[in-house]
Structures
1.
Amino acid sequence: MYLPFEDMPNEARIWVYQADRPFDEKEKTWIISKLVTFCNQWNTHGSLMPSSFDIKYDQFIILAVDESKLGASGCSIDSSVKILREIETELEINLLDSGKVSYMDAHGVKVAFLPEIRKHINEGSLQAQSKVFNPGVNKIADLENQWLIPADHSWLKKYFAK
């Protein structure tokens, strides 16, 4: 059952999906409609799960489930991936490829695919203190202080070691 994201508990489990480009307003409206419908029927073993989503920076989809009473099963997680694949196909975006890094620069969110990391560093757009989005966050509370971290505090630190 869908709940507004701000009504979800801080301990709710999350999955963060980063798009390779920002969503426009029409796309966001379509995504919201699609995900509200999905959350209203998202279940585990036939029981509806309190769930929600948020779109951050016009480029990240965050799915959330309150697992305090029942946890998300493998099948329920698979169904969420299926809906994200549908969004990918419809909007011709890359959401599920984990081989990309998103970071902030003066102009907003930048995306670097793994083979391009050194190029972004050499150009100076990705620096040791650049804020990178940590894909390892797994609960709503993590979004506050563990989602955006300096690049040299992430797995990217090897690129900045002296």
2.
Amino acid sequence: MLIGKGLMANLFQNYKNDSSIVVFASGVSNSNETSPSAFFRERNLLEDSIINNPNSLLVYFSTCSIYNTSMLSKPYVQHKLDMENLIKDNFSKYLICRISNVVGFNGNSNTIINFLIEKITNNQNFDVWKNAQRNLIGADDVKYIVHKLIRDFKESKTVNIASKTSIDILDIIKQIEIFTNKKANTNLVDIGEKVNIDIRDIEIYLDEIETRTNGIEYFKTLLNNYYSV
């Protein structure tokens, strides 16, 4: 069963008629969300999923932003942690997937790369936390890894789904400038932090994905795959 729409839901259409698996892709996706109604909606839908599918494997998408201290106090991150606890307390079989920054063009300006490309392409001014890093992973690579995790499922667990190497935000912007042939109009703010994400649970799958490229080279590949006309 597939619950939701948008980028993440589109990746898992092949599960929509499988009653043994519930792929919950209807959660709040904007990390800047503050509306209680948006959070209540996800909670209610998740609770209904628990009641109606007690014997199914639940696949839930959470966030790696919990590892970023500057993000931890955000309502979005606290909400995701609450949903994780709700699942752990009520579902017998679950796979909580904490996702890093997904790259895959779908018109959603809330994703970091879509945001940056839109700002740079349109010469719009924006603030940049110059000490920050972001961990980027391709949408199709998320699909591949989650499919493998479902296939190999043995016990309920929480898994980080991210690439091997986090990238400095200034290096990400530089590559987008090269890709778009436009200069970013930025205000540099002297804040931000490094990102460290434990990917040991999926390292075997990342070895298949990032055999020839990782880090900034991996990001270049993602730009070409998702944003080339």
3.
Amino acid sequence: MKHFIPVLALSLITVSTSAQKLNTLTKQEKAAGWKLLFNGANTDGWHTYQKKEASAAWKVEDGALALDQQAKKNGAPGGDLVTNDEYENYELTLEWKISEGGNSGIIFSVHEAPEFSATYLTGPEMQVLDDAKHKDGKIVKHNSGDLYDLKKSTSFAAKPVGEWNKVKIRKKDGKLTFWLNGTKTVETTMGTDEWKELVANSKFKTWKGFGEYAKGHIALQDHGDGVWYRNIKILVL
């Protein structure tokens, strides 16, 4: 007796077996010049801000870079994780997941120098947040997908806590564009009159050096809460 697999079931099998593995590049991505910033196995290519190596609080967990708050309680130093290399013109894609009530961020154009004690003193940020339960969720320009404290998202696109959110940040000749889960949330250009006005109306208005560096490191923020990042890829433009 012959047995037939329904067409729908066959298509589902095809999709599941062809799904891309975490933290890998497709042939098309490789051909286009994309590079992995996280290999899925360790923190190679990253270090804690103003340190030589990555803090032990940043671990690999189920294929993601995870900030382990228990490790910090046990004595492992925390701190923002930054790329070893600096970037100016690029497209950055990644996925993030935040803990309940958690706060983090993707900070870019970070100038690592002794006079700047933290990444956010020079680098603008795409906010990562549990908008429902963190107090910042009630503050304008502090929600997920916002250009933190500078420009509010055009629409709210974040998924609930526990779900993965997909990010794309494009920075080309100062022009910034943010996407969250396929929705364009922010667009502006650094160094323009609009940018200067955004800074002047923010908490950063008196911060010398903030948003002034065209080239810099990319950082994943330790804001004291559990957070996970994976599939971190960059295309230099």
4.
Amino acid sequence: MATSSTVRFNKDDQPEFFQVLRKRVNQHFSDKGITKYGDGRMVFKTVFMVALYAVPLVLMLSGLVQATWAIVLMWVLMALGMSGIGFSVMHDANHGAYSPNPKVNSALGGILNFVGGYHINWKIQHNVLHHSYTNVHEHDEDIDKGIFRLSPDQEHKPFYRFQIIYAPILYGMMTIFWLVAKDFLQTRDYHKRGLLEAQGVSYGSAMMHVVLLKIAYVAITLVLPIMILPLAWWQTLLCFLMMHFISGLFLALVFQGAHVLEETHFFKTDEHGSVENSWAVHQLKTTANFANGRHFFAWFIGGLNHQVEHHLFPNICHIHYPDIAPIVKATAEEYGIPYYEHPTFLAALRSHFRMLYKLGNNKYERQLAA
């Protein structure tokens, strides 16, 4: 179970690095005369991703799509739309990077609630725990998975040697788990740890929202299609599960392909709750980019192939990451700090699954401090 205590980063570890980097990045926006937030490109992407999810559902419920093959295609498109909303819309909004207007960020961040999630829990797990304590044992919930061994500091169990086999299956079940169990468990856990209240939400209201949102989502996305579509109920259920499997697998692989890799570092706190690096250096040691030259792929996944830039500047909209990446890389090299990147998404996935094998078979050798 990840803890909620604060990790102490080493403020004496090259503090000038992030000071210089932040100054250079700010100068980039000043020289260009542009905002760090989204622009018309984000508006177009938002409309596209929401339509990719909503239009197929409307076409099915309205009876305009009747053929079985076309119905299956609609569910596949909805899976891509659900992924795109997660990658490209609600992600920036919940980081406060979509717009300078908090109300716009709040509204667009809440889109997650309409695709089976709960934005408050997501913000706690992702913004508070993952971004603050990336790859820190018992603090980063993204590597605190009992069914997987994603950190060398996690106790090894015999069944982990099979994780390279069952990982893709369970990755595909990720959003289904969010829908039926995870949000309920997280709401209870975050309340006990005081994390819900830190977001200005009480336990009672959060649990009520989770219950009502889940009921509404299932009613619209599963019950209505079962009642309306010209398929047997079990066929519609399979289509619904297929949609979630595609989306869950896609989402999991993109995020895992940036942190649980052979070259990235893993940390645990000492008896004082401290780690060895400054926060910015820590982010570079625990994060990797991939497929930075794949423009459509990068566009679709919301710039999350630029994970290094995202972790250093989560309050900057992802459309700017390709422009600031050379600044980040050059500054990291100037200060002798690693800047990890893979040429393709496939290369990152190969590294991830090799890492799963090593951790599962207890063959991982910890990275030496750079």
